[in-house]
Design a protein that fits this description.
It contains 2 helices and 7 strands. With 100 residues, it is an alpha+beta fold. Strands 1, 2, 3, 4, 5, 6 and 7 form a 7-stranded antiparallel β-sheet that branches. A hairpin with a 4-residue loop joins strand 2 and strand 3. It is globular and about 30 Å long.
C-alpha cells in the first residue's frame, strides 16, 4: 500500500499497522515539535523519527518517508533510512526486523 503522493504517513497509520502485528507502540514528543514513535519488543525498543508532533492530536503527527529513520535504541545501531515513497508495509517490516 502506497502511503500518499506526498510521502507522508501519520503516527496513527504506523501504530495501527504495528498493532496488527501484535506490537504495542506510542507517539511521543522528543522535543517541543518533533515526534517519535516508540515500539516495545521483548528485548529492545525500536523508534521511528523524526516526525512533526501535533500537540492537539498526537496520532495525527506526520512522518515524511524521505527522511524517516527506524532503528533500535542500541548504541551503534545504524537503523534504516527509507527511500522516498516507502510503503506502510516496508515501515512495519523495518520495525519488526529491528525488534528481533
Amino acid at each position: 500500500m502506497r502511503i500518499s503522493d506526498t510521502n507522508n504517513v501519520t503516527a496513527a497509520h504506523i501504530i495501527e499497522a504495528l498493532r496488527a502485528h501484535g506490537v504495542e507502540s506510542l507517539v511521543y514528543a522528543i522535543d517541543n515539535d518533533t515526534a517519535a514513535i516508540y515500539a516495545t519488543f521483548s528485548t529492545r525498543i525500536v523508534i521511528a523519527c523524526p516526525g512533526a508532533y501535533i500537540h492537539s492530536d498526537p496520532s495525527a503527527a506526520t512522518f515524511n518517508t524521505d527522511v524517516l529513520y527506524v532503528g533500535t535504541t542500541d548504541e551503534g545501531d545504524p537503523g534504516m533510512i527509507f527511500t522516498p515513497g516507502a510503503t506502510i508495509d516496508q515501515i512495519t517490516e523495518a520495525f519488526i526486523t529491528a525488534g528481533r
